[in-house]
Structure formats: C-alpha cells, structure tokens
C-alpha cells in the first residue's frame, strides 16, 4: 500500500460507480468474496460482467484476424539464411528462458496494486476490502482519515471472523487519534486538541483516557498562561529580574509550545521591554533637571517607545508629566511677569504630551495678562476680551472668570491711581496729601489695593523727609567741630526724628557715630595710660587701668585685646619661673614636669627663646640620666628616655637608645652558635655596644 493509492476524500456510506479499467481477475475475486459472505449480486455487477464479455469477444475476433493473415505471409516470404545458424538459436535458447525467469521473479516480488477505494460501492464491499481500505486511510495519520478508517470497519457484524483484528485496529487507531490530539496540544492548539480527543469513539477503551488527558492539558495550559500573565505584569512594573525568573519557569512546563515558542517569545519581549524601560529611565533622569531643553529631550526619548511595548502606558504617563512640568516652567515665567518667555515655552510643548487644549488656554491667559499688566484702561479691556475666548468646558475657565472680574474692578482703580500720581507729581506736602487721599479711595480688596498702598507709603515717606530733613542738616553742622559738647548737641538735634519716620534709620546711624566719637574722647586717656604702664613693665597696673573702660563702649574691644595680651605674658612668666624652680631638683620626674610647664609659654612671648634653650638642656639631662640608669636597670632607663618630648635635640637619640635597649631585652632568634657564641652576653659587651651607639651620635 502506497500513499499515492490512498483517496483524497471519501466516506464509507457512499457508493460510486466502479472503474471500468479494473482487471477482470479483480472482479472475479470480488465476486467470489461476495458469494462467500452471503451478499447478493446486484444489477451493477451483472452489467460489469456483460461489459467484460464484450471485451473478450472483441479480443477473440482480433486473434482470428491475425491467424488468417499468417498463412498469406508464409506463402509470399521465405526465411533468410541467418535464421538457420545454430549459434543464433543457441543464444536464443539461453536468453529467452533467462528473461522469462527474470520477469516471473519481478512479478512475484511486485506488491499487488491497492484497490481504488474511492470508487468502491461500500454497501456491497467485502470485509477484506473494507479492512484494506481502512488501513490505507489510517496510514495517512490524520484525524479525519483515522475516523474514516474506524467508520469503515465499525459497521461490520460483531460475529464477523475478522472482528478480533478489527477491534484491535480500532483501538490502535483511537490511540493514534489521541496521539495526534496530544501533538496539537504540544503545538499550542489546545481547542483543536480537545476537539480531536473527544472524537475518539466512546465505546473504545482509549476513550477512558480522553477526559484525563483534557484535564491535564487544561491544567498545564492554565498554569502556563498564569506564569505568562504574571511575567507581563512584572514587565509593566519594570521588574525585569522577576520577569526573567518567571519566564524560566516556562521551561519546566510539560508543553513544547509553552516551553519553547512562548518562552522564546516572552524572553524577547522582556529584553525589548527592558530596553524600553531603560530609555524611559533615561527620559525621567533628563526631566529631573527641569529645564526646557532637558524636558524636550526627555519627551523625544519617551516618544521613541513603540505602542506594542509593555512600557508604552508608562511612557504615555511620563509624556503627560513632562508636559505638566513644561507648563509649570511656563507658569513660573508668567508669575515672574515675563509673558513672552512663558508663551514661547508653552509653544514648544509637543502634541504627544496630550496638553494641546491646555496649551491653547495657557497662551490665551498669558496674552490677556500681558495686556492687563500695561496698567491702562485700554490694556485691561483687551485682556478681558482675550480671557473671554476660553470655553466654559475648559479647566482654565474658572481662573479666566476670576481674572475678568478682577480686571473689571481694576479699571476703576486705575482711574484713581492715575489721578493720584498726577497730584503727587507737583511735589509739595499739600500735593502729596491730596494724592494720598485720592489713592485711599481704592478699597482694600480691590486688585490695585496693594499698588495703592505702595504708592501711599512712598508719598508719606516723601512728606516725612521734607519735614525731618532740617533736623539732620542742623545736627550735621553742629557735629563739624567734633568736640564732646558739639557732638552732644548734634545728638540732641537728631533725636527729634521720631521712630517710624522715613529718616529715622539715618538719624540713628548718625547718632551712633557721634556717640562713639564722644566715648573715644572720654576713654582714650585710660587706654594710653595703660599702655605706658605695660611698657614700663608694670603689667598688673596696666591691666587695672584698662579695665576702667566699660564693656559696650567704643574702645572696649581694644582694651580687652591688650588686657588679654598682658595677662598671657604674666602667666607665661609665672610658668617659666615655676619650671626653672622645679628643674633645679634634677630628678627625671621634675625635669619632665618643668618641660611641660615651660611648653605653656606662647610662641609669640619674648621668653620663648630662653624657654626653648632650657627645654633642650633638660631633655639632654633626661637622656643622660636614662643612659646612667641603663647600666643597671634597662626598663627604668626606657621609661626615663620616653619622657623626652618630641621636637627637642635629644629626641632622636633617645628613640635610638630605646630601640637598642628593647633589642637587647628581646633578642631575635639566631642559628645555634658553633663555638664561643653560646655564652651569655656580658655587661662588658653591652657597654661596648652602647659606646658604639654614642659614638655614632
């Protein structure tokens, strides 16, 4: 049976006219099988037999005609001489039997041709023909053909001799249908797999596996879909590591489609989404700077994220946020009364941010406020007309209405302010007072109320300046003599300027300068006397004299500075004297204490040079004492040498000596001596070593 002999589409219950080209031998075989099985011969078979007899009669007439022609040819033609050659006949006798044998073997080995199943009339077909055609159909290994094969043989009687073989084949074909269903499931076609599995005949044992198979497939499919959905959620949250971990779980799913195709697809999606997420992160980093250029760059980066990306919703949200930030920058410019720059920023916001209507409203309000800031009635009327263009459905509508109401009130205020400014321009106290009265007509809650207050404050200050300036001018003239009485009179004159008036800060500044001059005139003799006493060496008297200058007066800072210097000199001298008295004792402890006291003398003291010399001498004495102690008590000598302070001439030698003593007390391990070196080091050898060290110094 070959695939070329299998039918394209046929059904077991339909009959077709038999093919006239089928061999007579096959017809005879089919007729005999029909008789054996007890099936009656139909008119269709009778007509087929008649046609075969007519073909046989035609063939016999042709044979007779050929026999009649042969005698004629024999009478008119003689055999050539080469036909009488024995060599030729020998060859023929050898080749002809060989050829016949070869042809017979080939015919025996050749498989019989499959029956033409689509043209068989199935109600009259024998069991063997049905079985043969069913096997042909089943060999195609498709669900449709397997079902057709089952249907062909299923109709045969239960007591048929081939029933056992037929049942076995039906069971095999049912299992093959389940295998094909499983292949569909592995290929990712779950619905097709379920539909295929449920076509297995219910009476077959394989059908018992159907529902279990379907439940298993649905469970696997549901689990894989859950993993995939969760990975998509992680991608939307930009949790790439978790998404990759979830994708790896698909590899353990018992389904080729999910473990390979969908796994590869999900991996590509995660990589692509992560790249988009990095782009979005870059855009957000740029936007954090909150400059127009960086925000435009951030918007351009966010626009590059494709619609099919899992990050696309967040990119759209980020674009809206970037647009809001640009509008905030524009609003900041507008709040700073720079409407031109504000409008320019708003016009740069791309349409992808979704703020086109907001941008139009912002520009309309900015242009209206620019007109209103002209401060004229015409400008305010133009601003009202521009703000009225904003529709009632827009978010900026309420603000526009508030501005319109404010500008309508402001038109009245502008008239009062213009009149007040005209009056104040005349420059007299009376004119300033009239201007103040006119400006006060503007109510507290009106838009120009703050401006009116500012103008009124300026005009009041000008009135106060006109009234108080003569006091300060006279005080300056009095203070020109710079003696104590003149300065006191100037202070009295300037004090007539009351607190809260325009020239009060200037008056207080002048009074402070004149007061300092008076205090300097009064306290300078005390400071000069104290310095003279200090120069003579009487530091206690100098300190007492300088302390007569009280804190808070003009010279109190200078007095305190010199007092601190003189007290430092007294303490330095005391420490120096005490250090010399203690050093006389000559013990290591006394010398160390003397050095500590002497180091308290400041570096800028005149005693510092004597102190430094004494510290070097005392340090050398400590080193000599330590060396002497080293003759009998090395640990005690090390303690004494450590009292020598850093920075002295003897410090380096003391450190070398301490190192030598420590090496002597804890010698390094050496190889076993061979001769006299095993003896303990004597005191003479140590003394010799010490002399070498002293010689190096």
Automatic annotation (TrEMBL):
Transmembrane segments annotated in the record for this chain: 86-109
Biased composition annotated in UniProt, kind: Low complexity: 673-683
Protein name in the entry: Chromosome segregation ATPase
Keyword annotations: Membrane, Transmembrane, Transmembrane helix
Positions with biased composition (Polar residues): 32-41, 684-697
Region (Disordered): 1-41, 665-697
């Amino acid at each position: 049976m070959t695939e070329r002999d299998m039918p394209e589409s046929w059904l077991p219950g339909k009959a077709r006219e038999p093919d006239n080209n089928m061999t007579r031998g096959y017809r005879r075989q089919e007729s005999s099988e029909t008789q054996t099985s007890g099936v009656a011969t139909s008119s269709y078979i009778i007509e087929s037999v008649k046609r075969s007899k007519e073909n046989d009669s035609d063939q016999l007439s042709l044979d007779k005609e050929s026999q009649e022609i042969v005698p004629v040819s024999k009478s008119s033609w003689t055999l050539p001489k080469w036909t009488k050659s024995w060599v030729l006949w020998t060859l023929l006798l050898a080749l002809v039997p060989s050829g016949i044998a070869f042809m017979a073997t080939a015919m025996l080995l050749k498989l019989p041709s499959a029956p033409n199943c689509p043209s068989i009339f199935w109600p009259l077909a024998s069991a063997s023909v049905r079985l043969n055609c069913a096997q042909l159909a089943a060999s195609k290994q498709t669900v449709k053909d397997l079902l057709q094969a089952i249907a062909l043989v299923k109709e045969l009687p239960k007591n048929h001799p081939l029933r056992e073989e037929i049942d076995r084949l039906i069971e095999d074909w049912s299992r093959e249908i389940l295998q094909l269903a499983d292949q569909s499931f592995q290929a990712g076609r779950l619905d097709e797999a379920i539909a295929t599995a449920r076509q297995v005949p219910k009476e077959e044992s394989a059908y018992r596996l159907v529902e279990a198979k379907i439940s298993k497939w649905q469970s696997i499919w549901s689990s894989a879909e859950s993993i995939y959905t969760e990975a998509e959620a992680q991608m939307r949250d930009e949790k790439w590591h978790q998404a990759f971990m979830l994708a790896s779980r698909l590899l353990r799913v018992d389904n080729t489609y999910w473990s390979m195709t969908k796994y590869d697809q999900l991996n590509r999606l995660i990589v692509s989404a992560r790249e988009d997420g990095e782009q979005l992160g870059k855009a957000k980093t740029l936007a954090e700077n909150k400059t127009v250029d960086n925000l435009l760059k951030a918007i351009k980066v966010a626009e590059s994220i494709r619609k099919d990306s899992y990050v696309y919703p967040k990119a759209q949200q980020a674009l809206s946020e970037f647009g809001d930030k640009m509008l905030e920058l524009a609003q900041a410019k507008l709040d700073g009364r720079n409407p031109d720059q504000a409008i320019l920023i708003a016009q740069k916001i791309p349409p992808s941010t979704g703020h086109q209507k907001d941008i139009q409203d912002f520009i309309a309000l900015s242009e209206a406020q620019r007109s209103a800031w002209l401060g004229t009635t015409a400008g305010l009327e133009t601003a009202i007309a521009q703000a009225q263009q904003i529709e009632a459905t827009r978010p900026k509508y309420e603000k526009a209405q508030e501005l319109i109401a404010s500008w309508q009130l402001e038109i009245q205020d502008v008239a009062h302010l213009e009149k007040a400014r005209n009056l104040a321009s005349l420059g007299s106290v009376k004119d300033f007072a009239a201007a103040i009265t006119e400006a006060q007509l503007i109510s507290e809650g009106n838009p120009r109320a703050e401006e009116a207050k500012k103008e009124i404050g300026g005009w009041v200050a000008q009135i106060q300046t006109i009234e108080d300036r003569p006091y300060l001018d006279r005080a300056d003239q009095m203070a020109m003599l710079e003696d104590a009485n003149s300065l006191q009179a100037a202070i009295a004159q300037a004090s007539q300027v009351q607190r809260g008036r325009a020239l009060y800060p200037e008056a207080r500044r002048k009074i402070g300068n004149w007061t300092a001059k008076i205090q300097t005139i009064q306290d300078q003799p005390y400071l000069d006397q104290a310095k003279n006493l200090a120069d003579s060496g009487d530091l206690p008297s100098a300190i007492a004299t300088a302390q007569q200058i009280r804190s808070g007066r003009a010279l109190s800072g200078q007095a305190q500075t010199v007092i601190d210097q003189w007290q430092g000199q007294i303490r330095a001298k005391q420490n120096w004297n005490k250090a010399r008295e203690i050093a006389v004792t000559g013990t290591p402890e006394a010398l160390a204490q003397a050095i500590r006291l002497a180091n308290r003398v400041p570096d800028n003291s005149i005693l510092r040079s004597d102190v430094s010399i004494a510290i070097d001498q005392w340090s050398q004495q400590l080193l000599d004492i330590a060396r002497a102690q080293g003759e009998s008590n090395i640990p005690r000598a090390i303690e004494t040498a450590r009292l020598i302070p850093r920075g002295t001439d003897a410090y380096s030698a003391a450190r070398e000596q301490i190192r030598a003593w420590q090496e002597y007390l804890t010698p390094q391990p050496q190889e076993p001596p061979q001769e006299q070196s095993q003896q303990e080091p004597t005191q003479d050898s140590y003394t010799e070593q010490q002399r070498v060290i002293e010689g190096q110094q």
